[in-house]
Amino acid sequence: MVKAAKPFRPVVATANDLRSGAVVYRDRDGKWSKHASLAEIANTQDAADRLLALARADHDANIVVEPVLIEVDGGKPATLRERIRDTGPTIVLPGPPV
Amino acid sequence: MYRYDEFDHAFVQERVAEFRDQVARRLSGELTEDQFKPLRLMNGVYLQLHAYMLRIAIPYGTLSSRQLRRLAHIGRVYDRDFGHFTTRQNLQFNWIRLEDVPKILEELAEVEMHAIQTSGNCIRNVTADHFAGAAADEVADPRPYAEILRQWSSLHPEFSFLPRKFKVAVTAAPHDRAAVQVHDIGLHLKMNEKGDRGFAVWVGGGQGRTPMVAKKVRDFLPEANLLAYCEAILRVYNLEGRRDNKYKARIKILVHEMGEAEITRAVEAEFATLQGKALTVSAPEVDRIARYFALPDLKALPAVSEAYEAAKRVDPALALFAKRNVHPHKVPGYGILTISLKPIGAPPGDATSDQMGAIADLAERYSADELRVSHEQNLVLPHVKLDDIPVVFAQLQKIGLGSANAGFVTDIIACPGLDFCSLANARSIPVAQRLSERFADIDRQVDIGDLKIKISGCINACGHHHVGHIGILGVDRKGEEFYQITLGGSGDETCSIGEIVGPGFSSDGIVDAVETVIETYLKLRASADEPFLATYRRLGQEPFKEALYVR
Q: Which residues, 6+ apart, have CB-to-CB distance to B159 below 8 Å?
């Protein structure tokens, strides 16, 4: 049986900053921001392919590591894992507030 | 405590300099990420969910006050002011900047610490009974042997690129607190009738996606043969272990596939070529290393402290603390004190920099400057005068770490889970926190008695759920967190792998489900003295299954 193709969902490019390791998102100006809300959203497969290619180029330029596309829902990361990457651990951390 | 010799100092300093250069070359772009990744992992630097994570080795779980203060300092200056003690007696910082790592490693080297052998397919840091060197029930301190293994395994050229990681644990007491039967090699030091020391050797235990209890391949290996025999095991594994599938690459799979008789034959054949040669551990060498681990100069004291007994009579909280968190010491008049890093509702194993500093002060003043880290994610003051326990308890209460819950239902092991770990499928810490809060009532904890809950956020089982009396495994089911319960696991000398009791529970339902299991135990136990594990082993899973699933 042929499996139905998964419908395309909007995506953004995320990675970690090479120097600090911080979670970052590629914004509309081609910069990497700590704020998912500033990320460029790719709404088509072609736009997604282009975004990933740009993110990988930034990886090759030693700006970020482990670039990937993640699905977003209403502009926010869609999965729990990515929501935690975006907003931090869901627990109260033992130290003082950051 | 072990002190670095000239070789150790040179080796660690050279590694720091080497990694400083590698980081500089990575940041300049001279090294690609693919080239750099194995190098950073060899120095304990992972890329986790939020940032780089640095895993610092605490060999055989032994720390000095100075070292703990240095860890507190690193947490304060380079991270978010707290550290996480792990189930492998290590410490992790979760928000380390790559460009800071060389400086951190330099500061660690100043106090004879490093992050080597905390990652990669090498022989990892050797773990040990966290009461080692102090426990009344040990035949000898197992740490000298752990250190001998450390010296043999560090940078061992033949074993630096094994099929998979390789974990060794050592204990010297009949009650196994080091979980040796779920390690690649487990060593149980004992004495024969002639008074000679040797080891029961267990091979092929492990947790992860294929949990297995190790097989005992030798009941008494003379101490002189320790390294030659371990080398023989590693050689057989290095040669025969699978490299085509990482999920089948641990030695436990090889032991399972070859069978106990064949793996034993292969190891013995290899051992025959090594025995009596350069790897023989001589008695003078054992004595030389053992001197580093000499018991501190503890003043002879009466076995019973009148002051301590009087204080317990008037303070029920202290009396409970004494009962749960103080373990018999080999020297009369002293106790081994467990500092629970499991206050109600807190993330298991976390300590703030201030807490670490305060604990270091307590260790310096009251515990001969020594500490231990337990695989149960607690800290230990190994040499405390019974006379001093009331004041230490009072000090611990002041820093929020006076919980008298060692071994109770709230003394939960939990891996970092999806809140931190890039491998995790579900969160562990929030489940531990909610369970801790549900069972916060200390009278209820006393009634339930000994009960080990262990939680992992994925099948890699860093939270040791397979050997939890109640184990909880977090899984991802179509984007939702679900939790599978296993019952009847144990990591001690009666080692067993827990059995899956039935379908998993939602995040909302898991705490109620665990409570149902515990309430069922309370109804079914033969007496108030029958612990959970004994009741489970007597009755099997049926009554628990019925309570959980039959409406």
A: B122, B123, B153, B166, B234, B238
B183 and B274: one domain?
yes
**Residue B136 lies inside a defined structural domain of this protein:** no
Instruction: Indicate if B379 and B457 belong to the same structural domain.
Output: no
Task: Write the ipTM.
Answer: 0.94
Q: With beta carbons less than 8 A apart as the criterion, state whether B87 and B413 touch.
A: yes
Q: How far is B536 from chain A (nearest CA, A)?
A: 33
Which residues from B are below 8 Å from A88, CB to CB? 50
Cβ contact B429–A22 (<8 Å): no
d(CA B204, CA B217): 10
3-class secondary structure, B483: strand
Task: Tell me which of B236, B262, B292 is where a domain ends.
Answer: B292
pLDDT digit string (tens) for B514-528? 999 999 999 999 999
Which residue among A62, A79, A91 places its CB closest to the CB of B433?
A91
Mean pLDDT of chain A: 94
Residue range(s) defining the domain that contains residue B78: 6-110
Interchain pair A80, B479: CB under 8 A: yes
Shared-domain flag, residues B368 and B417 = no
Q: What is the pLDDT of residues B337-376, one digit of tens each?
A: 999 999 999 999 999 999 999 999 999 999 999 999 999 9
Instruction: Write out pLDDT tens, residues B25-58.
Output: 999 999 999 999 999 999 999 999 999 999 999 9
| Residues B168, B253 within the same domain | yes
The CATH number for B313's domain is 3.90.480.20
Nearest CB to A91 within list B26, B430, B481: B430
Residues of chain B with pLDDT > 70, as a percent, come to 100
> Each residue of A42-87: pLDDT tens digit?
999 999 999 999 999 999 999 999 999 999 999 999 999 999 999 9
Mean pLDDT calculated for residue range B148-173: 95
Alpha-carbon span B487 to B537, nearest angstrom: 10
Answer yes or no: do B185 and B264 share one domain. Answer: yes
Task: Dig out the tokens for B519 from the structure.
Answer: 């309430």
Q: How high is the pLDDT of residue B155?
A: 85
What's the total number of domains in chain B? 4
> CATH code at B419?
3.30.413.10
Q: Is residue B419 part of a domain?
A: yes
Q: Does residue B438 lie within any of the structural domains?
A: yes
Label the pairing between strands B215-222 and B480-487.
Answer: unpaired
Within this chain, do residues B328 and B375 fall inside the same structural domain, yes or no? Answer: yes
- Please name the residue of chain A whose CA is at the shortest distance from the CA of residue B28: A62
Tell whether B426 and B473 lie within a shared domain.
yes
Q: Which residues of A touch B (CB under 8 A)?
A: 16, 18-23, 59, 61-62, 65-66, 79-81, 84-85, 88-91, 93-96, 98
User: pLDDT-based confidence at B99, cuts 50/70/90?
Assistant: very high
Chain A neighbors of B23, CB-CB under 8 A: none
Residues 6+ away with beta carbon under 8 Å from B523:
none
Residue ending a domain, choose from B292, B323, B345: B292
Q: Per the confidence metrics, is the pTM higher than 0.80?
A: yes
Nearest Cα residue to B80 out of B50, B58, B57: B50
Nearest Cα of chain B lies from the Cα of A43 at a distance, in angstroms, of 22
Does residue B147 sit in the same domain as residue B288?
Answer: yes
Beta bridge partners of B171: B188
Query: What is the spatial distance between Cα A13 and Cα A60, in angstroms, rounded to a whole number?
Result: 15
Pairing assessment for the beta strands B168-171 and B127-128 based on DSSP bridges: parallel
Q: How confident is the model at residue A94 (pLDDT cuts 50, 70, 90)?
A: confident
